[in-house]
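Structure, all two chains, one model.
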Amino acid sequence: MFGLPAFTTMVIIGVPALWVIYTAVFLWLSRGWKREDAKEQQ
Amino acid sequence: MSIEILFLVIYFIAMAAIGFWAMKRGKQDAEGFLLGGRSLGPGVTALRLQSSSMSGYMFMGAGSMGYTQGYFSMWYALGDLGGGILNLSVLGRRMRKLSQILGSITSIEYLEHRYPSKWIRLIAAPVALFCMFFYVLAQFIAGGRGLEMVSGVSFPVALAIAIGVIVLYTFLGGYLAVAYTDFVQAIIMVVGMVWILVATLMAVGGFTKGNETVGGINPNLLTMWGADLGYQGQWGVILGALLVFSIGYMGWPHVVVSHMAMKKPSVARTAGVYSLVFNLLFIPGPYLVGLFALILLPNLANPETAIFEVADAVLPTFAVGIVMAAIMAAIMSTADALLLQAGTIASQDIYARFINKKMSDAQMVWVSRITVLALAIIGYGIAAFDPPAVAAVVIFSTTVLGSAFVPSYICAVWWKKANTVGAISSMAAGTLVSVLWQVSGAPDATGIDPMVTGILASTAAMVIGSLASQKSHPVPEHIGRALDETAKIGPIPKKMLMGQDALLASQAEMAARGE
């Protein structure tokens, strides 16, 4: 794909995909942080 | 005046104007000058964090690596992509909260408050100052080279102009000026980089066609193992490339100070997402443009100028000016953050801590400014007469910073047993091992990057040092309470803030002074 060897394609697509997944998991785990803001605003 | 120079002049004036505006807006007390009054939202936090770590290296070193090593260079980019989100998710919220509880306003002072001992600052401040000086030196050289190419003036004159503009707005408004100029510069960087990447891809006939043509020149360049397959199976080197700009970046004092300047601890959440988006748009560009420069400019005398030369070759004249402004933005946004942090370390962490303990806020600001000026003059002297290679200086100085400080910053908020002995051992071991590994030539002999050995040594020293000295150097009670509060999701009780809880404040001060 893209004129690249299979391993290169796998790495340059796979590693960014892992960072996107990491970010999604972080967002999910930190969803409760909004409560902190609500309390600070009060 | 050519259109490129006109754009650069407009850009320089705009940056100085932002610095002046920030000076008027910001408070001139220590927290105002050094942390922008802890007032920054997610957009400024994320883009300031990213632009101050995407240095002139991205336009000189990254382009050069793409040109000479092909897709192997992408290992650095792939680690770098996650650097921002990793930093904000692991340290962001907790470091913001703990620094406020302990009343810390510099990233080195924060370490001393968390690990109470003057030796923390005595070791951390010189190591950070030394590495940052070399890092900023690389930015000066990159800035001078860029201006030299665009304007045609001699390198010493171009260097003086670049340093002059950087110093001017760092001098003016402190952290707030640096944060807002970094924010604007990050946007310019993304626009410029995407523009030059799209123009390059069009010039080489698209991504696939470009890769095929590069493969015709040398098929090894399309592999992840380097131009001569020299890195095949060299997982120690590859791991180092992945770590230096991802995990290593959590140990850079001029970057992690961004967490302490956030308006609220929860800013880290949104800022993390913004930083990932910025990185996905920006980071692969310089490496790919450097790679495809092989097709457009196959006989470059100096690969470090690949991106400058490609911009000149593929963009219309007016766009070259904008892209050059983007390149200068990357260089200057890192240089100003480094200079400000170096000034802070000299004024707050060395002068105010060990020489003049009764220094006023106004005196502190002036000591910081004089330090910035002194570093700029010394940097000019070295860069003008014997400039070293940008990529080598950046990778070496950031490797030492990461090796020295990553475990101390991470354990500060995540491990209650991390104590002063562990932190001192960790910083000393990380610095010594990474420097000795590099200067002894061990990376070539063993195939293991100094980042890997440095961070392994500093982590092991932190764990062993802390566990072995729990009885002789227990973590002070007030630190334990501060860490419990940091772990909670919720506002900080007012009585826990330094200066408001007299007991907590006096405990922290006395512990820091070793009394």
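The mean pLDDT of chain A is 87.
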